[in-house]
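Practice problem 4.
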């Protein structure tokens, strides 16, 4: 195992302590805020706050399908945002956001 360049993003999921730490509403693991996706309530669904600048209460989760699915299953969005957010709707908003991001680095052609 070789170490990455100094100052780069840490490999692995452990918080570095360099910045704010938040809990993922999907897997419930703590991680650097910068490594998590922020969502805010938007009506009965959520909005992805890519720049972490929207006001109000936010929920954090890893930008990973598994964490999105876990959050949907437990209705963690509504709980974290304290809004009557529809879990399925919120899940599809986040999933679509991930899909768009993933598509950029992928050649496409899924089964
Ligand atoms: Zn997670």
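Answer key:
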């Amino acid at each position: 195992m070789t170490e990455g360049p100094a100052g780069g993003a840490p490999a692995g999921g452990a918080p570095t302590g360099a910045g704010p730490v938040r809990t993922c509403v999907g897997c419930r693991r703590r991680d650097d805020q910068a490594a998590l996706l922020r969502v805010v309530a938007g009506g009965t669904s959520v909005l992805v706050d890519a720049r972490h600048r929207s006001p109000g209460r936010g929920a954090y989760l890893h930008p990973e399908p598994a964490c999105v699915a876990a959050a949907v299953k437990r209705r963690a969005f509504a709980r974290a945002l304290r809004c009557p957010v529809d879990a399925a709707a919120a899940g599809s908003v986040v999933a679509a956001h991930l899909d768009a991001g993933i598509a950029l680095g992928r050649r496409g052609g899924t089964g």
